[in-house]
Amino acid sequence: MLILILSGCQTPNQVTETTKAHHPIPSANEAGKSQPVESNEGKEPTLLFDTAIDGIETPGLTARRTVYFDFNSARVAEKEIPVIQAHANYMKARPELWVTLVGHADPRGSRQYNLTLGKYRAQAVAKLLVSNGIAPDRIRIVSYGEEAPVVPGDDESAYAQNRRVVFIYQQH
């Protein structure tokens, strides 16, 4: 169950934010399917915070499902663009799919700062998907900030692997 935290007059390009108690990111095979949130008139990707997400298997997808970022940056590095383009091509060939982009940060910075940085990273990836022909209403954005590290540790190697956006696919 998702709870809407922003109400009132929204412009067509405003992103909807929702919240739910924090959960670690489940694997594609875990039970308990989440409900997709309708995007705001198809103009912008929907933004979710701390929402459990279930994915599906993606046969034929050869690109890695993770895009990595530099410290304190939401700029997509040139070396990551082919990964995003491969996902855009995969989605173009499969119109029944939509994607949740899950943004993450390393633990340096406040919780709020890292949630915001994770959101900006996911939005940067979403922007590139849209520029490669994917409709914004097929994209959802979630930020876990520093709350779901993939690699534990307090060194640059661990930090670098935790600064990421992960693609999780769902089917309409």
Features:
disordered N terminus, 172 residues, alpha/beta, seven-stranded mixed β-sheet, 60s Ribosomal Protein L30, Chain: A, single chain
Brief synopsis:
This protein is an alpha/beta fold. The chain has helices spanning 81-93, 111-131, 156-162, and strands at 3-4, 17-19, 46-49, 66-68, 97-104, 139-145, 164-171.
H/E series? EEEEHEHEHE
Please tell me the CATH architecture of the domain at 60-172 by its name: 2-Layer Sandwich
Calculate the mean pLDDT score and round it. 76
Side-by-side strand order of the widest sheet? 1-2-3-6-5-7-4
**Tally of alpha and pi helices:** 3
What layout of secondary structure does this protein have?
Blueprint: E1 3-4, E2 17-19, E3 46-49, E4 66-68, H1 81-93, E5 97-104, H2 111-131, E6 139-145, H3 156-162, E7 164-171
Parallel strand pairs: 2-3, 3-6, 5-6
Antiparallel strand pairs: 1-2, 4-7, 5-7
Helix pairs in contact: 1-2
